[in-house]
Amino acid sequence: MPIYIIATVYQFLDDHLKAKNMLEDLYSQINTKIDLSMEPYIQVTLANVWYPYDEEKAWKYWDKAHEFFTVNRLDTSLAIEYFNMGWTLVTHNKFEKLKDILGLWQKHIKNCKNSFHYQYIKAASEIISGKTASGLTRIRLLEKYFDGSFMWEWKKLYKWVSKQNIKSSLKTTYAYRSKVIESICLNEPITHNLQKLGKLTSLDLLLEGWSNAITTNRLLDSNLIEDYFNDFDRQEEFKNTLKIWDITCRDFSIISSYTSGKPIVINLLGNAEMYINNRKLTSRDWTSRKALEIFIYVLIKSWRHKNAVDKYDLLFDLWTPASDRIKACGDVRNNMMTRLRKIFNECDEEMLPKRPDDILFNWESGNYYLDIEHFVKDIKDAKTLLKKDQKEAAELKFKSALSLVRGDLAEGFEGLYLESDRAYFLSLKCEAEEILTSMQP
Q1: For the chain, what are the domain ranges?
Q2: For residues 269 and 248, is the Cβ–Cβ distance under 8 A?
Q3: Is the CB of residue 169 less than 8 Å from the CB of residue 204?
Q4: How many C-beta atoms surround the C-beta of residue 417 within 10 A?
Q5: H or E element: which one contains 177?
Q6: b/e 33-63 (16+ beta carbons within 10 angstroms → b)
Q7: Given pLDDT bands bounded at 50, 70 and 90, which one contains residue 226?
Q8: What is the dotted CATH code of the domain comprising 2-253?
Q9: Nearest alpha carbon to residue 105 among 146, 144, 62, 75
Q10: What's the CA gap between 67 and 169, in Å, rounded?
Q11: What would the pLDDT profile of 345-388 be if each residue is shown by its tens digit?
């Protein structure tokens, strides 16, 4: 029944008015045996979409469907009915009715407490009843069994929790996860105006990586999966789930470090990351996000012409200090530069030599790999091969270039110094994708 399917999609997307009107029209037209077999399913959906308008009418529909499912022992349909009405009651803050639903769930469905959907509604009911800590703990326990399924349910739960009376930091975290999961479900980039989290958990990093994979090159760093899932079997199950989304898992640390053969590996096409002697640097190495931004600034300002970067340009671009704060900000900059030089001591202490008026990354050392350089080179080589009518080789080069893209240039950082290069790399990426599409038979 295509009308029923379309109506349930509207309900799924929370457009209850459209769903209600379509289902009412469909319900009034039931007159065949085939239609009658669908009647309880239409009734239970009507119960959910009618609830905001007429609670009494909604419960009448619900009771009829519930009687049919219990008499005929349709446990799967019953569980879906309990979950959908449970969520409707959650969104309308009806705790007493929620208790009744959870009681019926336990009565009619064996081992229901082990199910994701029961625990999901139970967590929300605890938050509504004022047992916020217990509800949030239950959500964290559910997250431990996250496997990539029920993504839209996760999106709705996180969005709802973010609007409850909880700490502002938690509100931000749950709102962020809701938006990232929405981007995964809708196959759209994460919105740029979304408030970024100060500290990303292994779950947040995994979700971000998944979102970036969907909207860029269909590649996900397998290290993100291993960081979140301790159990090997669960890692493999999650990788199989990602295959449904046409996402391939690859070890980015091996791709970045071992294949380049360089002691210093810098990746800027996405979240900025750096490896020294095959070890990925963490926040402990940088000690400050500003230190990482200084390093990104130096690279962006000099990668094309291998030039030195003026210290005062850096100071005013990253701090824009008032006249009475120039010396203080300059001292902070100098301290961070000292920290940056120490980072490179592991492999080459001359990568950022001390200079009085400017900062120079040692481009001539040959000890580094920088993904943006290889990206540009691969695109250029691909175009040259295409002009020579070497289409297969050109296609491989274009794909090689796109495989380096994990997101926007230095994603998570903003500033005028980034805008032109960010637009440049985005235009190259789009051009490569268009050429690849045109090459398909």
Answers
A1: 2-253, 264-441
A2: no
A3: no
A4: 20
A5: helix 168-186
A6: eeeeeeebbbbbbbbbbbbeeeeeebbebbe
A7: confident
A8: 1.25.40
A9: 75
A10: 44
A11: 777 778 888 888 889 899 988 888 899 999 999 999 999 999 99
